[in-house]
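> example.struct
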């Protein structure tokens, strides 16, 4: 099949387009040429092909697996796809889908120009929870009723992308917002942190968000505790009470994860990567990386290039 690009419409001279791209696959897209706002819905199988050809995930992405058999790795977290499941992926995370016998579902992707989760945090409360979660991979199983709701929402988004109404972007944002709120509730209900309530979850996600913003420049637990208005020892005890690693471990893990991404997907030297993630001494960084991963940064890069 010959690749084709179809411009379906221009909405009131606002430089907003609904786009459908075909090349043995289908992706429904919204793109605003001025603001660069991007939103898309595509099949899981096509998303998997795109993910394999890309280095890192570029968008905030909601993966809805309705049926299939296989495995997906989000960074270092391996998940089975033998039951309906929703998975949330933050920009910059690595995705690898393997051992597939069949795969059905939807991938919903958007950028911060389309819907800024930090700006809208008071509405959807997903910053540091559904996205930018530095504690674990974000996923939850879907029962048949939930699966029907998620599937119907994805289908409604596709129908809206094919609609030429001037309020298309607002409708898409409302559908996305409703899906995020629903997902927030389901994830909170299924979180593996024992005995948590909303206040405790919000405490944990605030720390996760702070780590994401500052891990390159701030490594001291005391600094994060000060930003959260709590004593360092209390911060450690509170997180460990929820079954989460110590603050120092989370900060260190985030730095090592970033180093892995830079080693795999850039040609930067170990010295440059060390500086980027906030370690002035590259030898200290190399020792830290080796201790955490079992291999040196250079060997890690060589191993990835071979694979």
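> example.seq
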């Amino acid at each position: 099949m010959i690749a084709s690009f179809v411009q379906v419409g221009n909405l009131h001279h606002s430089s907003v387009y609904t786009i459908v791209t075909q090349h043995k696959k289908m992706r429904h897209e919204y793109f605003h040429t001025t603001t660069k706002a991007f939103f898309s819905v595509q099949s899981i199988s096509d998303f998997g092909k795109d993910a394999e050809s890309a280095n890192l995930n570029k968008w905030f992405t909601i993966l809805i697996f309705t049926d299939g058999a296989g495995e997906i790795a989000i960074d270092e977290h391996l998940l089975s796809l033998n039951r309906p499941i929703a998975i949330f992926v933050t920009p910059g995370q690595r995705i690898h889908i393997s051992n597939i016998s069949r795969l059905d579902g939807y991938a919903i992707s958007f950028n911060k120009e389309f819907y800024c989760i930090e700006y809208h945090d008071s509405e959807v409360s997903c910053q540091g929870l559904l996205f930018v979660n530095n504690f674990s991979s974000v996923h939850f199983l879907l029962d048949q009723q939930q699966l029907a709701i998620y599937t119907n929402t994805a289908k409604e988004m596709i129908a809206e992308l094919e609609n030429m109404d001037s309020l298309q972007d607002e409708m898409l944002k409302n559908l996305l917002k409703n899906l995020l709120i629903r997902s927030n509730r389901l994830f909170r209900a299924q979180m593996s942190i024992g005995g948590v309530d909303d206040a405790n979850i919000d405490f944990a996600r605030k720390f996760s968000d702070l780590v994401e913003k500052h891990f390159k420049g701030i490594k001291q637990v005391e600094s994060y505790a000060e930003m959260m208005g709590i004593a360092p020892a209390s911060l450690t005890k509170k997180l460990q009470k929820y079954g989460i690693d110590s603050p120092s471990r989370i900060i260190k893990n985030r730095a090592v994860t970033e180093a892995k991404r830079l080693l795999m997907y850039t040609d930067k030297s170990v010295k440059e990567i060390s500086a980027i993630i906030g370690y002035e001494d590259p030898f200290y960084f190399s020792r830290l990386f080796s201790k955490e991963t079992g291999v040196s940064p250079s060997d890690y890069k060589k191993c990835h290039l071979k694979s």
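> remarks
Confidence is low (pLDDT under 50) at residues 1-15, 17-23.
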